[in-house]
Amino acid sequence: MANVIDGKAVAASVIEKVRAASSELEAAAGVKPGLAVIIVGDDPASHVYVSSKSRMAKECGFNSVQHTLPAETSQTDLLALVEQLNGDATVHGILVQLPLPDHLDADAVTQSIKPEKDVDGLHVINAGKLMTGDLKTGLISCTPAGAMLFVRQTHGADLSGLNAVVIGRSNLFGKPMGALLLAANATVTICHSRTKDLAEVCRRADILVAAVGRPEMVKKDWVKPGATIIDVGINRIPAPERGEGKTRLVGDVAFAECADVAGTITPVPGGVGPMTIAMLMANTVTAAFRANA
Ligand code: GUN
């Protein structure tokens, strides 16, 4: 049976450090890190995520502001709000929860956030810094940064000689995850819906990272014995065994069977999930320190 990573515990230790850094900044400069979260529309899952982000920001001693906008908000109004927050010295981090309603241009909104306040790491300046190997001066997307902490805990900082396979090529996760693994000297393959012989590619992975949004897609026979599996998927599936209409959360990896083969594996829930919020807090405190350097 594989070692199962306790994401809640790792996230709690990150949050502890963030809290200490936040108090230190307040004591030294009289400044509280400020995080502004914007949510447009009423997607229930997004509201759950945003509430957790706002709650955690308060627990970290931040100045936490949430802007809840109606689904019919115009692009002009949304851009005006971002512009206002860009110019607000008490706000160090801005996050626009995705997905946005279809009539809005998410890319234009994301790129309108000042790179120094882009705690999601989605601005081309931050993405570009990561791609060119500058891991120090930009802001790195939260979920890959969190997943990378797990990888480092298991394998150390140098992944020389290891094959890493990432399933999924999104700007929010797959691409930055690939870049972080590459910066740590892994040999990286990024797979996606057009990849041929996916199972075969995955079987070569010493580190297998799944972020596709397909419930339990990765099976036991896709896994190299002893591999490290990081499951980024969060999928809600029907669970009739729990009663009529009940659901449960599963990842992109068939956990029970893969845990028989893997060396280390992350559970869902309780793996990567808690890390995303923790790294968002870490990015916000980093941005606040830089703004007050
Ligand atoms: N929606 C799902 N995950 C994320 C995230 O990490 N950041 C933003 N902005 N939206 C999301």
From TrEMBL:
Pathway it belongs to?
One-carbon metabolism; tetrahydrofolate interconversion
Which Pfam families does the protein's record reference? THF_DHG_CYH, THF_DHG_CYH_C
Q: Does the keyword Metal-binding apply?
A: no
Annotated GO MF terms? methenyltetrahydrofolate cyclohydrolase activity; methylenetetrahydrofolate dehydrogenase (NADP+) activity
Every copy of the Tetrahydrofolate dehydrogenase/cyclohydrolase NAD(P)-binding domain together lies at 141-289
- All copies of the Tetrahydrofolate dehydrogenase/cyclohydrolase catalytic domain together span 5-120
What are the entry keywords?
A: Amino-acid biosynthesis, Histidine biosynthesis, Hydrolase, Methionine biosynthesis, Multifunctional enzyme, NADP, One-carbon metabolism, Oxidoreductase, Purine biosynthesis
Q: Does this entry carry the keyword Membrane?
A: no
Q: What is this enzyme's catalytic activity, as reactions?
A: (6R)-5,10-methylene-5,6,7,8-tetrahydrofolate + NADP(+) = (6R)-5,10-methenyltetrahydrofolate + NADPH; (6R)-5,10-methenyltetrahydrofolate + H2O = (6R)-10-formyltetrahydrofolate + H(+)
- Subunit info? Homodimer.
The protein's name is Bifunctional protein FolD
